[in-house]
Specification:
Length: about 425
């Protein structure tokens, strides 16, 4: 009996040694190389860094992939149910699923259901399909990927797809879709890298075609009193003079050329916002900013941007450029609690808006980026504020070159009589 116990103890010790050796070998194999995509996991009481490419290669190996069947994987996007289909295909489903990208703002975008299919196509190469939405006709995005040391290089393409089902993916987060009728198609080509930094896009080519929106009721603004939200307001109707051109130069230089939005500007801002802390800054047209003032508020997230876009597309049709500009000029906040171009001209410069000189109009429009901050700059540090006013002045169209140069020369020594009021 004693010999049997000694034999069993020896076998157990040998098994422990083998297990320990295998664990050490595995940990060594998982140790990331310099510059390699890495993650951290807990092993008993120890924290250990692991190579993500190695983990992916192991997980998609023909011997291990079938053993993932039935497991659940908890991620920041949601919990995915894994289903293996043979030795080289993995199906993962998440419901609901959340997408959190810095460039989309602080709030995650939620979709009712997502399904990801992955096919192993050889050494470090994969492809598959991402399907978004429940029901019989989800939105399908084919993808392919190549695994590199620094991350997973992704290529995604979305064929021209009707906008209505695409926007319906966002459910209650996009309440306008309960009454809006949206026509048009959207397509996308994108190259991105999934790595320690998250999902970063190197190439993003979205396209919109034949877009129209109806049913949001923006035609009511055609006869609305824009000053009602800005009381008290001085008497007067249409805003005329250089202030119109100055605001366009400051806020939306292609105002008369675009359909209410500029998709290329969105892409540029998206790429910049991937690495900057404040998301979704910039790229709003005057029409979109009017939509924000009237309908959506200024919460900085992707859903507000989509809502703005819906209203902007419809307003371009129901109101036209002239009415949009007049509404915008009448409702803009201009610092010191002042609202509207006419009130701002009288409060800040002591004269009606239609009597402003180009440099005065440029100065007033230069405040719009952040009116109260810009007013403080003029009080404490004039030069940066003066440079912005000069930039606006240079952008004013229909200003003859000789007069522009004279106005720029005068701006060098000109100081606004901030806070002066004209009796109503």
């Amino acid at each position: 009996m004693k010999k049997i116990l000694m034999f069993l103890a020896g076998v157990a010790l040998a098994a422990l040694l083998v297990a320990g050796t295998l664990a050490a070998v595995a940990l060594r194999a998982l140790t990331p190389q310099a510059g390699e995509w890495r993650t951290t996991f807990s092993l008993w009481r120890w924290q250990h860094e692991a190579s993500v490419p190695t983990l992916l290669r192991w997980g998609t190996h023909p011997l291990l992939l079938p053993r993932l069947h039935g497991h659940r994987l908890a991620t920041s996007a949601g919990t995915w149910l894994l289903q293996a289909q043979g030795e080289s295909t993995l199906d993962a489903r998440c419901a609901p699923c959340r997408v959190q990208l810095d460039a989309l703002g602080p709030q995650p975008v939620v979709v009712e259901q997502a399904r990801l299919t992955l096919h192993v196509r050889g050494a470090d190469r994969y492809d598959g399909m991402l399907q978004l939405g429940a029901g019989a006709a989800p939105v399908s995005l084919p993808w392919r990927a190549e695994l590199k040391a620094e991350g997973l290089k992704l290529h995604v393409e979305l064929a021209p797809t009707p906008l209505q089902p695409l926007l319906a993916l966002f459910g209650d987060a996009l309440p306008e879709m309960k009454r809006a009728r949206v026509e048009g198609r959207f397509s996308l080509v994108a190259d991105a890298t999934l790595s320690e930094q998250g999902l970063m896009f190197q190439r993003l080519v979205p396209r919109l075609a034949d877009v129209s929106v109806d049913g949001l009721g923006t035609e009511a603004l055609a006869d609305a009193d824009p000053g009602a939200s800005c009381r008290p307001q001085p008497a007067g109707g249409r805003v005329e003079g250089w202030i119109q051109n100055a605001v366009i130069a400051a806020e939306d230089q292609r105002f008369f050329e675009h359909p209410g939005y500029e998709i290329d500007a969105w892409v540029a801002v998206w790429k910049r916002n991937q690495t900057e802390p404040q998301a979704l800054q910039g790229a709003s047209t005057i029409t979109q900013q009017l939509a924000k003032l009237v309908y959506t508020g200024d919460e900085r997230d992707a859903m507000r941007k989509l809502r703005e876009w819906l209203y902007a597309v419809e307003m371009e049709r129901t109101l036209g450029k002239g009415r949009i500009l007049q509404l915008y000029l009448a409702m803009l906040p201009w610092g010191d609690g002042i609202c509207g171009a006419e009130a701002a001209a009288r409060h800040h410069l002591g004269k009606p808006a239609n009597q402003l000189k180009p440099r005065e109009a440029a100065w007033l429009a230069s405040l719009l980026i952040n009116p109260d901050l810009q007013l403080r700059r003029w009080a404490l540090e004039e030069e940066p504020a003066r440079e912005r006013a000069a930039w606006v002045l240079k952008g004013i169209k229909r200003l003859p070159r000789e007069r522009r140069e004279a106005e720029l020369d005068a701006l060098v020594s000109w100081r606004p009589p901030i806070g002066r009021r004209l009796p109503r």
